Amino acid sequence: MTKAESKYFNTARRMDEAFLSLMEKKDFEYITVTEICEKAGVSRSTFYLHYETVGDLLTECVEDMNRQFLLCFKETASEFRRNMELASLEQLFLITPEYLLPYLTYISQHKTLFKVVLKNPQVMQAEKTYTTLFGDILDQILARHQVPEEDRGYMLSFYIEGTMGIVRRWLLSDCRESVDDIARIMMNVIRR
Fold it and tell me: Cα separations (Å) of 131 from 49, 52, 126, 158?
């Protein structure tokens, strides 16, 4: 990466951080370009060099969050899907320390960001993100377990909403319990 590229990405990161900081205090629709620029220490022209709208900045924040989250896991999504096709039915269970600990650790390390997501789920596209990240994988697992297709949507909703409910409560307590404790609770609630 050249010095100019580094400066460009550093400026974008500052605007991302400023935006997320503002999202902690006020609703998305009330955040202005001027506020973001003041908080990030950049000019309006710099903002418009990077983004057309505040919505574009939001989209970038969500995409970056998803990218960073997926890096927590040993396997890439394509490797996981490939391995899932070959796995035994007993191995097709994701509520295990192998999957929960990286997920919960990422959340605890980025709890400020996740609190913003909790406060603004529609704006931050939280449900769409979880459905995209986990929906197709869970659907394939349910199919392998011969769950009828007409039942899968309900089961996906149950797993995603239940998991998010535990995470939501944990975040509201400022992640007071350890990652291991929350993983244990999830494993107790969702049994094989």
Answer: 32, 27, 9, 12
Length of the chain: 192
Chain centroid to Cα 85, Å, comes to: 25
Max Cα-Cα span within the chain: 56
| 21-30 exposure pattern, b = at least 16 Cβ within 10 A, e = fewer | ebbeeeebee
38 and 11 Cβ atoms separated by less than 8 Å: no
This prediction has a pTM of 0.72
Q: Is the pLDDT of residue 81 over 90?
A: no
At 106, which amino acid appears?
Answer: Y
Q: How many other CB atoms are found less than 10 A from the CB of residue 10?
A: 10
CA distances from 182 to 72, 101, 124, 171, 176 (A): 17, 9, 24, 11, 10
The Cα 65–Cα 133 span in angstroms is 12
Q: At what angle do helices 54-70 and 97-109 cross, to 10 degrees?
A: 140
At 139-182, the pLDDT tens digits run 778 888 888 999 988 988 888 888 889 999 999 999 999 999 99
Q: Letter for the amino acid at 153?
A: G
Burial class (CB in 10 A: 0-12, 13-18, 19+), 192: exposed
